[in-house]
Write a structure and sequence with these properties.
This protein is of the alpha/beta class. Helix content is 39%, strand content 14%. It contains 16 helices and eleven strands. Strands 1, 2, 3, 4, 7, 8, 9, 10 and 11 form a nine-stranded mixed beta sheet that branches. Strands 5-6 form a two-stranded antiparallel sheet.
Length: 336
């Protein structure tokens, strides 16, 4: 039948599900997977001043002296606290924020914090990522914590023969960690990453609320539905892409994003069996970055983040040489 592969996020216990045989999917673009690994960037307009100025809010509060008490008569600090209490439920936070334009302004910092949190949670950037074959037995040393190993091995009477001592059992477990991680009950993610309060069962069951939220104009719409592509960095002329390994402080630089998937797959593969349905690709089962913390970003952004750091090692030449040789053996058009 051949060996099948999955990408697994060890930190979030998430997986892409079966991708098929390595030779069947390796050379495709996999834009959805790459989008998961690109560190998101929040566009400036999300930080910009909302609809009303602070002066307008003060005027609204001054009017409360001659008008019946309203929600806005509460101190601004208390309104912010209420908004913060709703951070775990974005739909409720949005409904609270849309009470009026004054409330929309007041809750802007809280909504921004939720946006940052949502992007971090949805993205795989900086997580421990591994491309795991179902024939894998061993795992690279050090990629799992002792607690994670314990959860995978689940030492109990069923695992241990009566004649086995604890040391023999540990050795046997070490040789099955790869298979256990492949079969672990990780959540299969949806590669459709858009975050929208206009979707989901809660809103579908409340059609009147859905209809009301759908009517808000373009000033508010970006906060109701986050298009993931909006948060991917845009490559400027002369810029380049970087696939980074935070665990080893290494990177691969590329002038184009076209073959980012091949670079990633060539570095994070892990198996004990070289049956990969590819010519001269046995080395792919021993990815040097398997289980490491990786991401993808632009070189310009990396320079801003790490301008004072000189300990990053460039392994571009080695990866380029191996992938170009593999492409020739596989009769593939490949430009690094």
């Amino acid at each position: 039948m051949g060996q099948y592969w999955k990408i697994r996020n060890i930190d979030y216990e998430e997986t892409t599900g079966d991708l098929g045989k390595l030779g069947e999917f390796f050379w495709y673009g996999h834009d959805d997977v790459i989008s998961l690994l690109i560190t998101p960037v929040i566009p400036p307009h999300f930080k910009s001043k909302p609809v009303l100025s602070k002066a307008s809010v003060s005027e609204v509060k001054d009017d409360s002296t001659i008008s019946p008490p309203t929600l806005l008569t509460l101190p601004v600090e208390l309104l912010v606290v209420i908004a913060e209490e709703l951070m775990d439920d974005y739909l409720n936070l949005i409904c609270f924020s849309l009470t009026c334009v004054s409330m929309w302004e007041l809750t802007h910092p809280v909504r921004y914090r939720v946006l940052e949190s949502e992007l971090r949670y949805k993205s795989w950037a900086g997580c421990r990522i591994i491309l795991l074959g179902d024939y894998a037995q061993n795992l690279p040393k050090g990629i799992l914590t002792a607690e994670e190993i314990g959860q995978l091995t689940m030492k109990n009477e069923d695992d241990k023969d009566s004649d086995e001592d604890e040391e023999d059992l540990d050795k046997k477990m070490d040789k099955t960690l790869g298979r256990r991680l492949y079969k672990a009950d990780f959540r299969r993610i949806s590669l459709r990453l858009n975050i929208s309060v206009l979707e989901g069962r809660r809103l579908r069951d409340r059609y009147s609320l859905y209809k009301e939220l759908s009517k808000f104009d373009r000033r508010f719409r970006p906060w109701l539905s986050f298009d993931w592509n909006r948060f991917l960095p845009r490559e400027a002329e002369g810029d380049s892409w970087m696939v980074r390994n935070f665990s080893k402080r290494e990177f691969v630089a590329m002038s184009s994003s076209h073959h980012l998937a091949q670079v990633v797959f060539s570095l994070i593969g892990c198996s004990d069996d070289p049956s990969i349905s590819m010519i001269d690709g046995d080395w792919l089962i021993e990815g040097p970055w398997a289980g490491n913390r990786i991401d993808i970003t632009l070189a310009s952004l990396h320079a801003q983040e790490h301008r004072d750091e000189t300990d990053w090692n460039d392994i571009t030449a080695e990866v380029k040489q191996r992938l170009e040789a593999l492409a020739i053996a596989e009769s593939r058009n490949f430009e690094f």
